[in-house]
Amino acid sequence: MISVKNLVKQYPDKKALDDVSVTFKAEETTAIVGPSGSGKSTLLWALNLLEHPTSGQLQIDDLTVDFEKSLSNQEVLELRQKTATVFQEKALFTHLNVLHNLTEGPVKVQKKSKQDAEQQAFDLLKQFDMEELADRYPYQLSGGQQQRVAILRALAMQPKYLLLDEPTSALDPELEAQVLRVLKDLAKKDTSMVVVTHNMAFAEQVADQVVFIDGGKVGYAGETEGFFHSDNERIKKFLGAMSF
């Protein structure tokens, strides 16, 4: 379980997060949704300490940090070892082929043997029908293929929680569908995921829980069905803007 309590992120010109408290359950998929600039990505980045809030607390399983106190390198390392993040941009290692992209972290960071790391990589590629990509370099892949490899690279680190920041926003609809199918398969396997997404169809079909962030505040946090059938006027307006 990941939990944040009274999270505040204050910038000189705005408050990106305003007293945010929410829980992300293990073995479930949580979709973070909301208008542009509402604080969705800031919240996600706080979960792996890429963003340091001004105040509040973060708890991941049995580890808790207070953002009003300085964090030791060991605390940061222990928390980050529980998560892996996939960003909007694919950001693969361009000088490495797909197989080496999937083995670099396990070998260099986790000190796995090359043989074990490669076996794990092949297993992941086979699991998602991507074996034919093993020897290709990023420039030889489509945008959708690159993002799917980025997801597998994160999974290769065997994180407790997978964090994804609008992983399909830079893709056209066809390539977006390829990536969303991978995430749907992961959700079916009870992977613990937190996904910032603009795709309401994906959120409605796949997420167990929705967190709606509006103006840095939590406007809703609960079951997906409750969000999409909410009588709240702000939520209805937001969802209405998603269609035309």
TrEMBL record:
Topology versus the membrane: Peripheral membrane protein
Compartments where found: Cell membrane
GO MF, one annotated term: ATP binding
Alphabetical UniProt keywords: ATP-binding, Cell membrane, Membrane, Nucleotide-binding, Transport
UniProt keyword Transcription regulation, yes or no: no
PROSITE patterns according to UniProt: ABC_TRANSPORTER_1 (PS00211), ABC_TRANSPORTER_2 (PS50893)
Organism of this sequence: Fructobacillus broussonetiae
Broad class of where this protein is predominantly found: membrane
Protein name: Amino acid ABC transporter ATP-binding protein
PANTHER family associated with the record: AMINO ACID IMPORT ATP-BINDING PROTEIN (PTHR43166), L-CYSTINE IMPORT ATP-BINDING PROTEIN TCYN (PTHR43166:SF35)
Keyword Membrane: yes
Domain ABC transporter: 2-240
